[in-house]
Predict the structure.
Amino acid sequence: MKTNLKFLILIVPLLFVYQSVLAQTLVKGCVADKRTGEPLPSVNVYVKDSYDGTITGPDGCYELSVQSDSDFILVFSFVGYQSIEKTVLPTENITLDIELKESITNLNAVTITAGSFEAGDKKRAAVMDPMDIYTTAGSLGDIGTALKTLPGTQVSPDDGRLLVRGGDASETRVLMDGVLAAKPYYSKIPDLPTRGRFSPSLFEGTFFSTGGYSAEFGQALSSVLILESQDVAVEELTSLSLMSIGGELARTWVGSNRSFSATGGYFNFSPYNSLVKNHIDWEEDVEAFNANINYRQKGEKGGLFKLFASGDYGGQSFKVPDGSGDILTIDETGGNVYVNSTYHHSLTDKTLMKLGVSYTYDDQDFQAGIHNQQTAERVTEGKVKLISQLENGFKITYGGAWQKTLFDQTYRQTESGFLINTNFSDDLLSGFAEAEWRLNSRIAFRPGLRFEHSSQSDEQLFSPRVAMAISTGENTTLSMAWGHFFQSAQSDFLKYNRNINMQKAEHFILGLQSGSLATRLFRVEAYYKDYSKLITGEYNDFGEFVPFENSGNGYAKGVDFFYRDKTLIKNTDFWVSYSFINSERKFLDYTEKVTPEFISPHTFSFVAKHFVSPIRSQIGLTWMWNSGRPYHIPGDDEFMGHTSPNYSDLGANLSYLTSLFGQFTIVHFSMSNVLGRKNILGYRRVALSGDDGNASLITLRPDVEQFMFLGVFISIN
């Protein structure tokens, strides 16, 4: 030990002396796209065969200090672009500006758009960015509500979650940075809408697939929504939000290649409910707290570490009719914790590695009359993904994930003392591989295969998937997709029956997209979905569904249209969506194959935003309409033989840009159902013990006929 210590004492000073005599070269410059001239952020800049390196900043520029007494090679690499190597002579200072050329694997060549809407990626047709979500009238800053103005979705004002192309809300999976967000919505009470937990301002991109999605993703029969969080912040900022329903305070700190932000909020609907008439008999108004933190750190050679953590807690209590003439008091409290962490790193010039892990803890206490139900659910997912560009025109994406679910629920009757506890766990292992072959700049082909194994159902399933795109002209693409998709039973089902297998859907999609979002974009898509192994059963005395077997089946087919235009009317951006769907299912307690009660055959949306420069204001209008939904009157010979009235809602908002105490400020006012329409959302059966003759019918109406929102958002530099 003493010998080693003496050696270190002697050698360390020599190393410093040696380094001091090496030539130190400061290399700086900027990297841009050769075709467009736009700066390229996050480009890897490093010395070949060494660990010295950096990445370009948001402006595409870099600065790197290299110690060497001989020539060295700088490598400039970026996924989707051809790498460049430059030999540098040792000197004191050098400026080296680089232009990278797109490889034909770049999505600018031809993009497979079948079933997908993406925002935030400049290489694809961005449809909706965070500002679109905030300024869409009627969305109230909710991601899911704003996405319902896109084709393929149902309006579902009594739900709030995404219902896509014939699928119910459980068939859409939400991920953050490619990793599972197991509870993306606040707790759902029957017949009342919920909203998403995540603020649009947390994200810079949104990928919304209405079907035929990549083999990378699973456990969703209908759709995936992928939220891409922001990278390292470049500006320190404090923001204060004062709203008619509460307030939020956020602060962002910026350091060298890192940033940290924290947000806290408090919401209370009591003042609002005392002023605005609604159909809910409140015992205790909605009250909630939330907080989140964000940490971002850039590393060497393009490495990027992200950590996000959020938590919320709240409750509410109100009275509702139970369908038999009595009044039922609903009391609900609960909290949620979500942690998401990812790390991206270039292993080589040709391979990018992405690691991710997420953890969700959700705890809910639900009281309905004498019935009390306490539920705790924990979901953990770990994921590894590799992207290798084997040659110019051929790329492969591969990896795997492990998901662990722990479910624990206790039911008790407060009067009799009857108590029962249910708990189970499930390990879901998955692997995927997907190749993307660009035959040339006009044709792209993407075959993939996914494997899934559930410890709960003891199934091993393979999901083949294929997508293809052909460029038929300038800014016009024909896309096709096909694939198999599986999904495990919901936890609320598995607590009653563990012998339930995964459900299956097969997707067929054909679409045409033409134009550019910078001017105008048109898109039409036809699809067919074949459902099998759907879960069937009946409802018990407590109104909960008890599954028996996987004997259900069904289909969904339709066509979606989308048109967006930013040039037809000066200072105006508008889009139009229309969807037609024909869908039938035999599932849950349905006695035969019929159109589900959450399906409207026709759905139409119109969104317009006009900026009035003289008064620095933006005016927004959103009209959402859908045809009536089917429902069943207990005792009728024909199942689901009735149709509810059409639904229509015209929303409006006004955003005014001003200055308050010398700080940039936005004053925002929004109002739903401007015309005061008395909408009936549908009717819900209340069936007990599977005895349809003793069931009753509840009329579903919006809990608030006209919702008005006022907010003042102040940015403090």
Helices lie at 2-21, 130-135, 143-147, 270-275, 491-494.
